[in-house]
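Reopening this one. Same input as before:
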Amino acid sequence: MGGSHGGAGAGGASGARMLRQGDERSTTLAPRRRQRRVEAAQVIDLRDRSRTDGVIIEQPLRALPQQERRAVGWNLRALGHVVDAVALAGPFLFINTFRTDLVSIRVVALFVVVGTLLLWPTHRRGRQLITPGEGLLSTLTRISLAPIITTLLFSIVRYSDLSNAQRFIDMVAIVQIVAITFPLVMLGRLITYRLAVTSRHRGYDLEDTLIVGSGPIGLEVAEVLSENPQFGLVPCGFVDGFDDTDLPLPLVGRPRDLPEVLTRTRVRHVVLAFGSAAESELVAIIRRCMHPDVQFYAVPRLFELGISHEDIGHEVDGLPLIPLRQPGSAARSWPAKRAFDLVASSILILLTSPIMLACALAVKLSSRGPVFFRQERIGIGGHPFEILKFRTLRVNDDSNTTWSVDDDDRVTWAGRVLRPSHLDELPQLFNVLRGEMSLVGPRPERPHFVEQFSGEIDEYHYRHRVPVGITGWAQVNGYWGDTSIERRVRLDNRYIENWSLWRDLLIGLRTIPTLFGRRR
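Same output, byte for byte:
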């Protein structure tokens, strides 16, 4: 990976240009930076080990207090949703002043709630404001769906009202509703959009952003973000390993210290722009920084060759920015995974109880010893727990350090049926119910092998960022038993970085063929 001065797609003369944010900022930025360097030198005492220890080289440049900017942004978002609700309710309230028997006020209230919720995500895409023209088709589609969904919901809760056509939204009225409310909603969007743009140009509703990389691409990112406040990010400093003195913003810290820099500066947004850190080093640093409140963006390699904003979601003055997904447990929808585990494992235990009873009987008849096999495994965060399985081997003392293979001569006749079909894993549903495991996740391993693989494979310990699972992305791709550990690790980490509840459901469905011994 190239250094910050030789990143792909260097901005040419952009590396020499100073960051501009209006004429006033371009003339005052350098003196302000020198002043802040003096202040930083006075604040940081390297002899006092309880202080920053040089982690913060210079304080980030901030024009307005971040909390004040966020408060204005929250109020603008709330205003946008209120304007949507007023635009949806206005025509009905106006008509009802003349004809109170036309549409029930309860139907109007439900329509406004449904419509407002459908329009909720159409104001912004992340931090970027969506222009009224850009969101035209999406807004029209959602307004058209609102009366249909309202009709369905109201018919469920008040079925008797279906006989009263005058007090219900019929299909003919849908076209009229859309024709009346759509122009009002778009007018409201235009007003709120202009308010938001004006506020951002004045320095409000902007999030401080650190740029990793102070080379040509990093300087270009800083410039385009400053010149396009509608994107919602304002650069406040660089993070890099080079000691450049001619930078338009403070050099806040080093890449290796990024987690602590984010904690101390409370910056929530970071753009990765080809810094001095090697790619493998940067991946490890970012994984240490992952927090629900921190959003990373990456400038893709070779973006000059035609990566479009439709492929990546964000583009600022021709510069694509890819928002990195929140991995695993850092995702905001992660609590839904635990709720799904609780419900699904409870149902599966009830449905599979006859099968588990038959498996237990087969294990008992196949050889002497307990029905269940209990063994210590390593779960989320490296914490040990006791896993449950149906015993498929004859009782032995070396199971904690011996790698099991398909042709193991210790396998019982019951085990030769349970192991290929994975029915021996069914008792792990109780581990899921207790919260020690998840239905989907990286497979748990024994402490002995965790220690061994952690020393051999650099990314092995990152598997423990999420709960271990009964099945996983590696397993449905054919990697279980005596297969490549390196590929399992890569697949497990890929799953964590791209987790979604929908992906869990797909993995669950793809697990079904593996019950019949199929690898893929």
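So the earlier flakiness isn't reproducible anymore. For the record, Residues 67-201 form one domain.
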